[in-house]
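Memo to structure team: turn this sequence into C-alpha cells by end of day. - J.P.
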Amino acid sequence: MLDCAKLGSVNWDDVQVLLALLRGKKLEVAAKRLGVDTSTLSRRVARLEEQLGARLFVRTREGLKPTATAERLLPHAEAMEANVVALQAALHSGEERASGLVRIATTESLARILVVEGLLEVRRTHPDLVIEILGENRPVDLARGEADVAVRLAALKQASLKARCVGRTGVGMFASPGYLAQRALRDGDDLRGHDVLLPTGELSRLPEVEWLAAQAGVRVVFRSNSMQALMDASAAGLGLVPLALGWGDRAPGLVRARVLEHVPERKVWVVTHPVSSERLAVTVVVDRLVAIFERMMGT
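Reply from structure team:
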C-alpha cells in the first residue's frame, strides 16, 4: 500500500522518472528520453519505490507493466508536469531578449534540412538562445512539455495546441544521376523493374509508401525507418526513393525523377503550445522556421 506520509519527499525529478516509464513502457526508451543510462534509471526507480513504500512497475517480456498504484499516480503526475511547463513559461514571459533552451521536435530528414537552411543563424541576433532539435519520426506531446515546437507533415490533433500551416509540397521519386542514366524514368512510365527504397515504422503509413508497396513488378531492395539512410542509399545508386519535393530537391546526390501526381500535397505544420508560445525565445524560433519554409516553398 502507498505510504502517503512519504509523498512529501517526492520531487519533480521523481515525477519525470515515473512519467517517462509510464509513457515509454520500456526501460531503454525511458532512459533515452531522460538522457540517462538504464542502470541509473533502474536505481532511480528503485529509490522512488522505496520512498513511496509501493511497487510501481513489474518487469515482463513485453517491457514494464505499471501497477495499479502507478496508474493512480499518472493523472496527478501529469497535472504536476503541466504546472511546471506553465511555471517555466511565466518565468520567461517578461523577457526583453530571447534566451534559454528551445526544443524543436521534427523528423530526422527535416532536422537536417532546418540546419542546412539556416535555422541556427538566429543565434547571430540572439546569442543567448540554445536550440535543441529532436529528430524522431514519432509524434511528441507538446502539452506534456516534451518539446516547445513541433515541425511536422501532419498536424498534431490536440485541441489545446496552436497549429500553423507554413507551406505545401508534393511528393516525387528521386534517384542518383547514375541510376537514372542507366534506367531512365519518364512521366507515364510505370515502375515495373525499378529498384525502390521504402521507409518502415511510423513512415510506412505515408500514402506514397503504401502505393509503391502495392505496385506490380517493383523491387523493394532496401527498407529503413531512417529517411537519411534511405536518401544516402539512393544517392549511392541503389534505387528510387519517395520524398517530399521540398526535401528531395535539396538532397545532395539526388535528382527528381518524377512527381507522383496522384499523391496529395503534404502540408507542413509548425505547432506550439499556447503557454510555451508566450516565451520570447519560442516566438523568435517560430518566426525563423516560418521564414525558412516561406523561402523554400514560395509561400
